From TrEMBL:
Keyword Methyltransferase: yes
One BP annotation, GO: methylation
Keyword annotations of the record: Methyltransferase, S-adenosyl-L-methionine, Signal, Transferase
SUPFAM superfamilies, per the entry: S-adenosyl-L-methionine-dependent methyltransferases (SSF53335)
UniProt superkingdom: Bacteria
MF-aspect GO terms: O-methyltransferase activity
Pfam families: Methyltransf_24 (PF13578)
Origin species: Massilia eburnea
Signal sequence bounds: 1-20
Signal as UniProt keyword: yes
InterPro entries attached to this UniProt entry: SAM-dependent_MTases_sf, SAM_O-MeTrfase
Identification of the protein by name: O-methyltransferase
Length: 221
């Protein structure tokens, strides 16, 4: 059995994606209506993320269906047993990663979410999917919640929170990334510092931009 495409996970994900596409969140519509330059400034900021993510607490802002499938496939292929995620939201990406852990024979996923209401919704969704036992949800600013208590070795890192913090979050966990560990960064172009680091030939990573604004990187051995 493949957990991702079996009940209860598959119908749950279908419902969550459908809700994310259909539910009208006024704050999200207002943000989308801002000029492109203003949106880019907010998304790449290291100081304005608290306010904007508080306003968007009712918006799922999920990874795409394609990126979710990519996450599952990467985690399965890497035989991941230890995963860290920055940006839980409603737990859609978390469900994909936790499903991979289940099919890999078990493991632990540490995920962190700034908004308490989103963390609770993610907890409920993971429970509904039968995957909560594999996940530790940390509430608060990732720059604090990921500062300690990490596993000695991390197989996969997902960056999908405040874009301007990608380089800072990577700095917190990179000494725990095993050689060959994978990093998936959604909308990485909003953090020039992060992109410069992972694409630097001398920076210790191999990196490849993928369709859908995803940056896939691998830590060199």
């Amino acid at each position: 059995m493949i957990t991702l495409v079996s009940a209860p996970v598959a119908p749950l994900l279908q419902s969550l994606f459908a809700d994310a596409e259909s539910v009208n969140v006024p704050a999200m519509a207002a943000f989308a209506a801002l000029p492109v330059e203003q949106r880019a400034h907010i998304l790449s900021s290291k100081t304005e993320y608290r306010a904007i993510y508080a306003e968007l607490k009712d918006a799922a802002i999920p990874v795409s269906r394609e990126t979710g499938l990519l996450l599952y496939m990467l985690a399965r292929n890497a035989k991941a047993s230890s995963i860290v995620e920055f940006g839980t939201s409603f737990g859609i990406s978390t469900l994909h990663l936790a499903a991979a852990l289940r099919d890999n024979g078990g493991g632990k996923l540490i995920t962190t979410e700034f908004e308490p209401s989103k963390a609770q919704r993610a907890r409920d969704n993971l429970s509904a999917g039968g995957l909560l036992d594999l996940v530790e949800i940390r509430e608060g600013d990732a720059l604090e919640t990921l500062r300690g208590g990490l596993p000695d070795q991390i197989d996969l890192l997902l960056l999908d929170g405040a874009k301007g913090l990608y380089a800072d979050v990577l700095a917190l966990v990179e000494n725990r990334l095993r050689p060959g560990a994978l990093i998936v960064a959604d909308n990485a172009d909003y953090c020039a510092e992060y992109v410069a680091k992972v694409r630097d030939p001398e920076g210790g990573y191999l990196s490849l931009p993928l369709p859908g604004d995803v940056e896939l990187s691998m830590k060199r051995g």
